[in-house]
Design goal:
Layout: E1 3-4, H1 15-22, H2 35-48, E2 52-56, H3 59-70, E3 76-80, H4 84-87, H5 92-95, E4 100-104, H6 113-119, E5 131-137, H7 150-162, E6 166-171, H8 174-181, H9 185-189, E7 194-198, E8 209-213, H10 215-227, H11 236-248, H12 253-270, E9 284-288, H13 294-303, E10 306-307, E11 309-312, E12 315-319, H14 326-342
Bound molecules: pyridoxal-5'-phosphate (PLP).
Pyridoxal-5'-phosphate binds at residues 9, 58-60, 63, 84, 137, 141, 170, 172, 198, 200, 209.
Length: 346
């Protein structure tokens, strides 16, 4: 048996989701005539308390557009040093958006209003690059599925308002934060000017993200998306998968969180220093391999049917999802824990 915990993007659509996609009513979305896309955009905008939404192929595209709406070429966006927009979007924000990025240190990606206040330089005239926006990730991927504190988000939102800065949320896994804390999505959404959410991570859809903002900004984002060659036609087939995910796959994220905890407990049983199960907040587990190199451990685990990512020289990441259950995650954790005790420093 293979337990693939490299990412929650690896899921395949369920039979019911495939049926919903096959039956989707569609039209040409560039003409604004795909009813299923329009329904998805309306529904997500309402869930997050915004005027309008734009269905995009990827989270990276939704983030690129969301940040670009708030930051002009030559200005900067501020985010944490491990942010997905900084590390994993192939420099798109600089290469395509023409903006610069400045980062602050953080504990597992947690935003801290004091750190943000320290580095912003709004309206800096001809002396410094002007900060135009702050971006935050919830949950935080490389931080290990960390949930942002609502109080800190409120404080940064206020700081941004006071200084005329935009505030963007990379909410690829906002659903996980919502399920883990019970915080209504709208309570998160209203704090931001632009929010991206993904359906292709924990929600198990094959493709798709939605960017929400006010109607004027979404109108501009629609033009920018087309300019990037990313306008699409009968995309309702994909939007139907996302709508199905919203109906059936949100509440069950609690199962993924329990499975992640079971995985971490099994690892910690062998090597307590590798991971603190109490620190597992959602569906991502970061394992500190200590003085053992992560790559060979990931390779040895794969030989035993357990796939995890070696994200750094001494760091493994495991992500639970729709296609794995708690029992197999616990068994996988046991294998990783055993391997950790066997591999010694080179
Ligand atoms: C936090 C976060 N934001 C954005 C993305 C980008 O999503 P996509 O792969 O659809 O471009 C990811 C992808 O894993 C992510 O983890």
């Amino acid at each position: 048996m293979i337990v693939d915990l490299r990412s929650d993007t690896l899921t395949r659509p369920t039979e019911a989701m495939r049926q919903a996609m096959i039956m989707a009513e569609v039209g040409d979305d560039v003409y604004g005539e795909d009813p299923t896309v329009t329904a998805l955009e309306r529904r997500v905008a309402d869930l997050l308390g915004h005027e309008a939404g734009l269905f995009c192929a990827t989270g990276s595209l939704a983030n690129l557009l969301g940040v670009r709406l708030l930051v002009e070429p030559g200005q900067e966006v501020v985010c944490d040093v491990e942010a997905h927009i900084a590390r994993a979007e192939m420099g798109a924000h600089a290469a395509l958006g023409g903006l610069t990025m400045r980062t602050f240190p953080s504990d597992r990606g947690r935003i801290d209003v004091a750190e943000v206040a320290k580095i912003i330089s709004p309206a800096a005239g001809p002396y410094l690059v002007s900060t135009a926006a702050v971006a935050v990730e919830n949950t935080h991927n490389f931080g290990g599925g960390t949930v942002q504190s609502l109080d800190q988000l409120r404080a940064v939102s206020e700081l941004c308002r006071d200084h005329g800065l935009g505030f963007h949320l990379d909410g690829a896994r906002l659903w996980n934060a919502h399920v883990a804390t019970g915080t209504p999505l709208i309570d998160y959404g209203r704090l931001f000017d632009t929010v991206s959410v993904c359906f292709s991570k924990g929600l198990g859809a094959p493709v798709g993200s939605v960017l929400v903002a006010d109607a004027d900004r979404i109108g501009r984002a629609r033009v920018l998306r087309k300019r990037l060659g990313a306008g699409w036609r009968q995309a309702g087939i994909l939007a139907a998968g996302a709508l199905h995910a919203l109906d059936h796959h949100v509440d069950r994220l609690a199962d993924d969180h329990a499975a992640a905890r079971a995985f971490a407990e099994a690892v910690a049983e062998n090597v307590p220093a590798a991971v603190d199960p109490a620190g597992v907040e959602t569906n991502i587990v970061i394992i500190d391999t200590g003085d053992r190199p992560a790559g060979p451990i990931a390779a040895a685990a794969a030989d035993q049917g357990v796939r995890v990512s070696a994200l750094g020289a001494r760091m493994l990441r495991a992500v639970t999802h729709l296609d794995v259950d708690a029992a197999s995650c616990a068994a996988a954790g046991k294998i990783i824990g055993t391997l950790l005790t066997r591999h010694t420093a080179p």
